[in-house]
Structure formats: C-alpha cells, structure tokens
Amino acid sequence: MTKIRHRAHGQNETFLKNVFFFGSVLLLCVVSLPSDTGAQTIDKKAAAESVKLEFKHAWDGYKQYCWGHDDLKPLSKTCRDWYGGQTILMTPVDSLDSLYLLGFKKEADDTRDYIAKNLSYDKDMSVQVFEITIRELGGLLSSYEITKDKRLLALADDLGTRLLPAFDSVTGIPYRFVNLKTGAKRDPISNPAEAGTLLIEFGTLAKLTGKQVYYNKAKKALVAIYNHRSDIGLVGENINAETAKWTNTDSHVSGGIDSYYEYLIKCNLLFGDTDCRTMWEDSISKVNSHLADETDNLSKLSRTGKIVAGDLWYGHADMDSGKRTATTTGALDAFFPAVLALDGDLNRARALQDSLFQMWRLNHIEPEVYNYKTGKVEYASYPLRPEIVESTYYLYHFTKDPKYLAMGKEMWDDFVKYCRTDVAYAGLKSVETKEKTDYMHSFVFAETFKYFYLLFADEKVLNFNDVVFNTEAHPMKKNWKN
Ligand code: DMJ
Q1: Does residue 408 contact residue 51 with C-beta atoms inside 8 Å?
Q2: 187 φ, ψ to 5°?
C-alpha cells in the first residue's frame, strides 16, 4: 500500500498530555493543543459563531435569489427546482431544524409558517423516494419534534401516504420513483442505500401518527436487502425490486450502499428493534472481514488487539467472491467512522478517520473518489458534502479528544476558503484546481453547517443521547410523545 505522508493533527497521542486549560471560563470553550505544525488554539465559541455567520450568509443568498424554489445556483444566481419547475421547497424544509438549532428562531418561525402555508405534495410529479424521504420527510419530522407544529406533521403524513405505493413490489423493495399524485411507480433497479434508508423516517412517522403501515413497509424493504446478501454476507450495488436479483455485485460502503449500513445500526438505537441489531452485527463483521483494507503493519497490530491510526481504509470487493475489485474511497465513505463510533468500535473509527483526513489534506478539500493505493484522486469534485464533518463530530462526542476539534477547525477553514462565494456557498468542480461549480445542495444547510456547528457549540445545544440523526442529519427524538 502506498503510504501517504500527510499526517493528521495530533496523531501522536502524547500531545494529549500537553493540553492546557486557562481558567474556568476558557475551560469550557478554548482548547489548546500542539499539533504536527506547532501549538494551535481552538476557540470553540469563536468557531461556533463563525459557523453561524457563514450559515446566515448562505441562507441569505438562497433567500435573496431563490426564495420559494428548491435550490440556489450560487454562481449564476439562478434557481433550480428538482422536478420540472414545480417546487417542493427543498432548501427551506431541509434547513428548518438547523435554523432552530443554530439559534435563528425568528427566521425559523417565518420559514416554518411559509412552509405550512405554501408546501403541497398534491402534484403530478414523479419523485425519487430516497431523496424525498431523507430530506423532506426527515426535515418535516425533526422540525415537528422541535416545534410541535401540527401542520408539519400533517404534511409529513400526507407525503408518507403519497410515497407508500413505491413499496408495492413483489419483493417489498421499493421502486426508485413514485408519482405523488397518481402513485405510478418506475425504475425497479434500485440499490441498498435507496431501499434501506427509509426506516428512521417512516418509523418515526408511524410512531407519531400511530399508523404502523409506515414502519412495516420500510422495515420490509430493509430486511429484503439483508435477506438477499451473498453467501459471504455482503450486499451489491444494484438490485432489481421486481426479482431481487443483483444487477451489480460490487460491494463497498460508498454511494449506493452507504446509508443501508447506517440504518441497520440506527433502527435499533431509535426503535429498540432487535432484528436491526442482529442484521447490523452480522453485516459489520462481514464488512470488516471483506472490505476493510489494512497495511501489513496494521494487520499485525490488530492481531494483538491494538489498531494504529491512519492505516485503515475500506475498499471495494465482489459481493460473492470477496475478491478485491477497487482500492477507492471518497467523500461519501467518510460517514463510516461515525457509524463505527456509534457501535463503540473507537479503534477502527479513529484509524479510519485519520486515513480520511489524510485524503482531505491532500488538496485541503476531499475529493469524491480517491484511490488509497495509488494516492491519486480519481474524481475530483466536491459538492459540499458533510460526511467527514459528521464523523469528526461523532468522534469528538465519544472521545472528547481535542485532536478532533483541531481537525474540524482545519476543515472549516478550508471549507470557507474554497467554497464561499459572494452570495452563498458553492461546490467545487475540482478539489485540485478549486474551480467552483454552480450548485449549492440543500444538504449544506441540513448537514454540513449543522455538523460543524454541533462540533464546536456547547453540547447543551443538542443532547446527543436523546436523538438519532437520519442520514440527512435531521435529529429524531428517541421518544415520540406528542
Ligand atoms: C446527503 O443527502 C445524505 O447524507 C446522503 O446519505 C448521502 N448524500 C448526501 C450528502 O453527501
């Protein structure tokens, strides 16, 4: 394996001994630590304020140019509606709980009122079930839990009802698209992520409305994917919802599969569903056996029960043979340290996070696809993805190791430096040239800014133990009292 020379801040655990605390006030908000480039001070309070300011900058840009539309194109200052000019208020719905969490109450209340008065799903529109579920259904439900505004729950219930026909396949695996007005469904070739990333939202909707059908349909889809795993316990990249035959046997933890694993662990944590726990435990052991890629050095050490940070990656393998098919990873894969940490596997979580941070540091923004064996970027775009920030937040939550604050601060500075525009934030066409692309996904509000903020903010802003985040960073409460 090609070793990457860049090293994460504070990789040397001895730096912890050198953390200084400056009095009781600073104790809460300032962390000082040496790094490989010298002493560095992270002022948490200032960092959290900076995230708020930048969130507001991007939000104001969206509002100024595209209020009432789905998304802002920040370079041309034009708008995009996902489905043929009809809006489903993607950015407002996806951003609403972040507006509350970051403390923009008046802005949030106004946005909530606008959504309640103007959003309608009674549209002749064929929508992607996965995206609408994680962004819209998830956004409505978490904002309902924050505000108790029944109008949001009514919208979520209406949307859930309109999405249900997608599950009407012989296998229980949903079609990828469904028409919100007619219920017509299309695109049976799906994937584990799109079929298996629905239970947190549909399950919460079931709890809040008392309509068990939502839970049952989404769980059946998740179990159907699991039941069609290969003899060695892996899932592939594409599966036919009508036949349950795999049409692509590439196995990995990247886009198309990623959040299937995330929901296997989370559906037990949120609902106490022990089937989920069983499926998760079986699946993660197979992922660690067949997809994890370790250096010889690391393998030797892990046999002794100790894992050295920075030498672990997860690559691709054929789901049937387990044969390595690619040594690529990327921005989407960076959710995996969070999932490992959630499972209590802090050794692997730390090691993988350090590897992925090396990937970030190569160009000071992470690429979509990176070959960890050759050290080459294979697909250089960066659409403002949150996953590596999410993992940093989880690792800081579970370890309180200040190296994760330093890591997050470095990523935050890079993010602002390269992705900020005069009116908002823009993804990058290339992390190598830093040329921007004319798009700002709603997940920058739902996830990227939110995870940066939660990393730096006082933990009281959101009690981690009270919620389970859906894959779009919408926190779902573990109790459903109306
Ligand atoms: C988000 O919509 C979700 O996090 C999803 O699970 C993966 N892709 C984007 C962010 O990168």
Answers
A1: no
A2: 65, 75
Other residues' Cβ atoms within 10 Å of the Cβ of residue 432: 13
Spacing, Cα 463 to ligand 1 middle (Å): 22
- pLDDT score at 311: 84
Tens-place pLDDT, residues 400-434: 999 999 999 999 999 999 999 999 999 999 999 99
pLDDT of residue 12: 37
DSSP string for residues in 247-302: EE-EE-SSTTTHHHHHHHHHHHHHH--HHHHHHHHHHHHHHHHHTEEE-HHHHHHH
Could you tell me the two tokens for 357?
A: 């941070």
The yes-or-no answer on residue 318 being catalytic is: no
pLDDT value, residue 84? 86
Residue among 70, 368, 390, 472 flagged as catalytic: 368
Residue 183 token pair: 């219920």
Distance CA 98, CA 462 (A): 11
Q: Are 417 and 426 in contact (CB under 8 A)?
A: no
CB-based burial, 223-247: b 16+ in 10 Å, e otherwise: bbbbebbbeebbbbbbbebeebebe
pLDDT tens digits, 225-256: 999 999 999 999 999 999 999 999 999 999 99
Tell me the C-alpha to C-alpha distance, in Å, between residue 379 and each of 211, 376, 396: 43, 9, 29
Low-confidence ranges of the chain (pLDDT < 50): 1-39, 309
DSSP secondary structure string, 153-175? HHHHHHHHHHHGGGG-SSSSPPP
CA 43/CA 104 separation, integer angstroms: 22
In angstroms, what is the span from residue 172 Cα to ligand 1's centroid? 23
So what's the pLDDT on residue 409?
98
What is the rounded CA–CA span in Å between residue 386 and residue 446? 9
Q: Please identify which of the residues 136, 366, 387, 401 carries the catalytic annotation.
A: 387
Indicate the burial class of 397 (C-beta count within 10 angstroms; 0-12, 13-18, 19 or more): middle
Sequence-ordered alpha helix ranges (H) in 67-149: 90-101, 105-118, 129-131, 138-147
Max CA-CA distance within the chain? 64
Measured between alpha carbons, how far is 426 from 376 in angstroms, rounded to an integer?
A: 24
Instruction: Say which CATH topology domain 8-474 has.
Output: Glycosyltransferase (1.50.10)
pLDDT for the residue numbered 1: 30
User: What is the CA(333)–ligand 1 centre distance, in A?
Assistant: 10
Taking the model in full, what pTM does it have?
A: 0.91
Report the candidate in 206, 208, 124 with the shortest Cα–Cα distance to residue 164: 206
Domain ranges, ordered by start, for the chain: 8-474
